[in-house]
Design brief:
With 325 residues, the chain is of the alpha/beta class. It contains ten helices and seven strands. Helix 2 crosses helix 4 and helix 9 crosses helix 10.
Length: 325
């Protein structure tokens, strides 16, 4: 999907969100329309010892908070480096049978995706580009090495099968993928890239947006890290004010990548601290992303009860309240 098609897909996502919000508004309580181009990321990363706590996750409370903030999409972690995932995967269990012992008690992304869909909010799946680096069993079973080294072809084939399962399992509910840790891809063959990219697109048609993250900061947040990438990964811990982002960024970024800026509201990713940014700052970044036809994503933490912090929800809501559909 080229840049024009990517931007059209993003607009369709926003339009679908507005339609869903209008339908939801027919209920007892009016829901304000999501703000196109604004989304939230959540790092929910249980380990093997506490994954059973996922049974306590209040999906409706999460979806309601996102709707209250007027988010148009959620980026949700499937897992990261500890080897525990929040979603079952038959392909992973076939490749690495011992992983079945750590199957989560419920299919949270499916439940969350359906709850979001009812509110006109899209679901984007987060997954590392490499095998869980802190899980020796999965590293060996999947045939991976350090993420600082190029990925072996055996691993790429196995990981593509894992990605394909989730892509097809969630189907149209999954509006995109955000792959983390795309640090070293030297030597990856066209066949390996084709398999991985096809897996990420499978089941979702041509409208999925695909982001591959090579790292944080001004030198990398807008870099192209994969041939099928169509959205900037956008990771920026200390994003500059919109006025400081070059007006010509659309021309300077790699061809065909839609604009995206991603930053945590707290001190770091998933940290429950006071907001680093004022409501005015958030409002300016959202407006700037909209003007560029792109996205602004805010990472928000969960509390010990697996809910978004009420103070953060209220703070973000004050920033989005002035936007009109």
């Amino acid at each position: 999907m080229n840049g024009i098609q990517a931007l059209r897909a993003l607009r369709r996502l926003a339009s679908a969100a507005l339609l869903g919000a209008a339908c939801a508004g027919a209920g007892a309580q009016q829901q304000e329309a999501p703000v196109p181009g604004f989304g939230v990321m959540v790092h929910y990363l249980p380990d093997k010892q506490n994954v059973q706590n996922a049974a306590l996750f209040d999906v409706e409370a999460l979806a309601a908070a996102l709707a209250d903030m007027r988010a148009s999409y959620l980026v949700l972690t499937l897992g990261q480096n500890n080897g525990q995932f929040i979603a079952p995967n038959a392909a992973l269990e076939a490749l690495c049978p011992e992983s079945a012992r750590h199957r989560p008690p419920r299919d949270l992304p499916l439940e969350i995706g359906r709850a979001l869909e009812r509110r006109g909010i899209g679901l984007v799946l987060y997954l590392p580009f490499r095998a869980p680096q802190a899980d020796p069993y999965l590293m060996a079973c999947l045939g991976d090495v350090s993420e600082q080294q190029p990925p072996p072809a055996r691993f790429t084939a196995a990981w593509s099968a894992v990605i394909r399962y989730w892509s097809e399992h969630y189907g149209p509910l999954a509006r995109g993928w955000w792959f983390d840790g795309t640090y070293n891809t030297r030597g990856m063959s066209p066949e390996s890239w084709n398999a991985l990219c096809a897996a990420a697109k499978s089941g979702g048609g041509a409208n999925r947006w695909l982001a591959f993250n090579p790292g944080e900061g001004p030198a990398r947040f807008n870099a192209r890290a994969a041939p099928c990438q169509n959205v900037m990964a956008g990771e920026f811990m200390q994003p500059p004010p919109p006025a400081s982002l070059p007006a010509a960024l659309a021309a300077e970024r790699p061809s065909n990548l839609a604009f995206h800026l991603l930053t945590p509201l707290g001190a770091s990713w998933g940290q429950a601290t006071a907001p680093r940014f004022s409501a005015d700052q958030l409002r300016d970044w959202i407006a700037d992303a909209q003007a560029r036809g792109g996205l602004f994503t805010l990472d928000l933490p969960l509390d010990d009860g697996l809910r978004l912090l009420p103070a953060h929800v209220a703070h973000v809501r004050s920033a989005t309240a002035t936007f009109r559909p």
